[in-house]
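Hey, quick one: can you model this chain's 3D structure?
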Amino acid sequence: MQDDLAGSLRMSVAEVIAAVTEGHTFDAGDIVTFGTPAGVGFARDPKVFLAPGDVVKATLTGPDGLDLGGLCNRIIDAN
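Sure thing. Here's the predicted structure for all 79 residues.
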């Protein structure tokens, strides 16, 4: 439902990391998340939420177009 590039962020990735590291020391394995692009389901009319069977996929592509990896998670029923 949502698709965007890091270049659309209000601050560059470098600016975000510089700001965060002013008050936090990172350890190996820590991650920084950047929020959500336009189209979030809560703001839609009608609202759209994840449901069992939906898939959430996040990918990272390098500046040369090389696939650097990603995450793919299927939503399951909590019961």
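One thing worth noting: The longest helix spans residues 13-21.
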